[in-house]
Amino acid sequence: MSRRSSTRRSSKVASSPTFTPFAALPLDIQTRIWKYSCERHGSTHCRVHRVAKDPRPKRPNAKPPSRPATLRILAPTRYSVPSVLHTCQKSRALALSHWALWPCASPNRPHKNDGTFIYVNKAHDTIYFADGLIEDFLFLRCISMAAPPGSGLPKNEWSHTYEEFGLFLKGVRHYAIDWWCWLVGTVNGDSLWMSLLCIASNEDLTILINPSITKQDAQAKITYTPLVKAISPGTIRGKTADTILRHIKNNQDYSGDARTIDVSDTQIFKQGWEASEEPYREYMPNLKALALIWSPADQEDDEDGPDDELYLEKVRRQCRYHRLKFALESMSFEQEDLRKQMKDDGIDFPDFSISMCGGIRYG
Length: 363
Prior knowledge:
Strand content: 5-15%
Shape: globular
Helix content: 25-40%
Number of helices: 9
């Protein structure tokens, strides 16, 4: 009885399919598995990398510094190396096409490399120009100083540096700046630099809001890493995000198609693309909004609290002022063009200039 039972078990084991070890699989199947693992790990472990500031230029017309066009990451805590980078030689070879090694800087000395490096996933990680203005980051200064591609203007020193940054940042899809940085960078009405920051259809720009921070250049902000979180629709903070994104969306620099609001989610505006339009120059990048939270991770974050109420009112006034400033700029240029035309045609006109600094207003 026992011998027959043992024979049956042996025959069942013998008839079961043989498990093929991973190393014995065909090379193309191994490659597909590693590629999937790299993509899966990158999408589920995406990070927000805060870019360290560069030294500000000593003169307004200073040339770009002669140093490699790279970004340094503020990494007060060391992150673990993605597992696919050290599983085996084959996985590492494939993973290196998904992750790039970038230098780091200490929050206490952001202008210099600290000798350490961090792996950045260009497809999924967000590159965040944190706690500063355009002149605090060499790459953003290049965008504002270089001759725009396709403009017909001759290239300058900033154009070459911008191209070098383009090679370094090739493959990056997600950028982020602070709301205050966007306001200052567009105070004269020029918002087209956003289309030079994000130049491909799969790239997006996130506007970071800071409901709990009232002082823009608070030095305490750089001493530790904040929590970046999504904004819940229907909350006061959600209204703030909608106010900001609608304000940017309604900029006169963009065509009507670029202002179409995606009603499915008012906090994420997505554009339509044509292959022939890339690299585009007149369309706003995909826009998103996230919140920076400076409270401890274990502390509950109230998106309908008094800080958010005050911040919403503050943002509304900032948007209104920004809109009026842009309107005055546009009117002054229009008036000057009209003045020249009337002078050339010999038409008399009273010299009622549009005031940009208050004073007497006519009419």
